[in-house]
Structures are given as C-alpha cells and as structure tokens.
Write a structure and sequence with these properties.
elongated; single chain; 7-stranded antiparallel sheet; 47% strand; alpha+beta; 212 residues; 29% helix; 4-stranded antiparallel sheet; binds 2-acetamido-2-deoxy-beta-D-glucopyranose
C-alpha cells in the first residue's frame, strides 16, 4: 500500500514531466558543448601542428672513432666515440615565434648509445633557423669483437646509421601572446651518414606528445 501511494502521489506526474524536459535540455546543452569543444580542440590542434618546426640532420663530424684491440687476449675490446651532430631547426612560420625549453637529447651510433646531452632553451623568430650542435661526451665502452669490427667497417665506408631523439617543451607565441605550450618530440631515426655527407639533410619526425 505504501509503495503504491508513493508511485501515484499527486505531485509525481508533473514533477516527472518537468524533470524529463529538464533532462532533455540539459543533455542537449551538454552534447552541444561537447561537440563544440571537440571541433575547437581538433581545429586548434591542427593549427598548432601545421606550425611545428622542421628538423633536419645536416652534418656529422667524427672526431674520434677508435677501436682498441686488447694486448691481452682475455680482455675486451675498447670502443671510443667522439662525434658532433648538427641539426637544423627551422621555424618557417610567418608570424609565430617558437620558444623551446631545455631539451634532452639521446644519440645512438650503429646501436651504441652515447651519453645524454642537454640543450639550453632558445627562442626562434618567424622565418628563421638555428643550427644546434649536439656533442655528446666522449663515449668509452667495452664491446665484443664482432660489433667493433662491424662498426669500424661502416665507419671507414661512411655508412653509419644514427638515431637522434630530442624531448622538451615548445611554446607558440603570437604577437607577444602565449598561444600554447606542449611537449615536443623529435625523432630522427635511421639517419644514414651517406645521406648526411651528400648534403641531403634527412628530415626528422616532429611530434607533439601528450605524455612524457
Ligand atoms: C686510438 O687509440 C690508440 C690507443 O689508445 C691510440 O694510440 C690512438 O692514437 C687512437 N687513435 C685516434 C685516432 O685517436
Ligand atoms: C637550415 O635550413 C634552412 C631552411 O631549409 C636553410 O635556409 C639554412 O641554410 C639551413 N642551415 C644550415 C646550416 O644548413
């Protein structure tokens, strides 16, 4: 009996109808906002992406690449690598200034990781480029004979393959206003020394990354 009373109470019907209308409006407003938000978000992301810098590896200087055979047969071969990689970062926007936070750079030569490099922050006016010099500290490491022989061969034939990965923050400035600050990832994978030496300046994959 008590349950029946609640269901068929005098106010129940009008309250229910009103609630249905409110719900309909609320959900209509909600979805409209969501859709506008999505459209705005996608447009903004596309805009920012079209303003990303262009990055190319244009030079590789090998200062020392030395494989030292051990005098004692039981010891490992020692590998020494000292190189400088020059990376051209171009802001080809006509209006937007780009500001880069300190970037951490990981470099690999023929699969051997070199010590990490930290690049200082810098600013880039519209229509300008910067030549970043990446010079990891001299890497010394013990390697096995086969790897060392292979590396030496590709070095003498100028056929080494390198990977450069840069990570940091980038800011987009328009007429003195900060438009957006995002994480930037630059992936230069499988860069061939022969191409760099021929001044072909292979380009890197520049991405915005929502995560680290
Ligand atoms: C390579 O290492 C050996 C032994 O450490 C050294 O005598 C030689 O000068 C080095 N070569 C170069 C090009 O640095
Ligand atoms: C860097 O790239 C820009 C645009 O492609 C070019 O004008 C400039 O000469 C390049 N700088 C170097 C040092 O390669």
């Amino acid at each position: 009996m008590a349950a029946d009373d609640l269901e068929n109470g005098p106010d129940r019907g009008t309250f229910g109808a009103c609630c249905t209308m409110c719900c309909a409006w609320a959900s209509f407003m909600f979805w409209t906002l969501v859709i506008f938000g999505l459209i705005f978000g996608i447009a903004f992301f596309a805009f920012v992406r079209s303003n990303l810098p262009e990055v190319r590896v244009h030079r590789l200087d090998v200062y020392n690449l030395n494989v030292t055979e051990p005098k004692n047969k039981n010891k490992d071969t020692q590998l020494t690598i000292d190189v400088q990689i020059s990376v051209n970062v171009t802001n080809s926007n006509k209006k937007m200034t780009l500001s880069y936070g300190g970037m951490s750079v990981e470099t690999m030569i023929e699969g051997f990781s070199l010590p990490k490099v930290h690049l200082e922050k810098f600013r880039q006016r519209p229509n300008s480029w910067n030549d970043l010099k990446i010079r990891p500290e001299t890497m010394r490491s013990l390697v096995n004979d086969d790897d060392a022989t292979e590396l030496k061969l590709s070095a003498t034939q100028h056929e080494m393959v390198l990977n450069v990965r840069m990570k940091g923050k980038i800011e987009f400035w328009f007429k003195g206003h900060l438009m957006s600050r995002l994480r930037l990832k630059v992936l230069c994978d499988g860069i061939e020394q022969s191409q760099v030496d021929q001044a072909l300046a292979p380009s890197c994959n520049v991405k915005l990354s929502p995560f680290r």
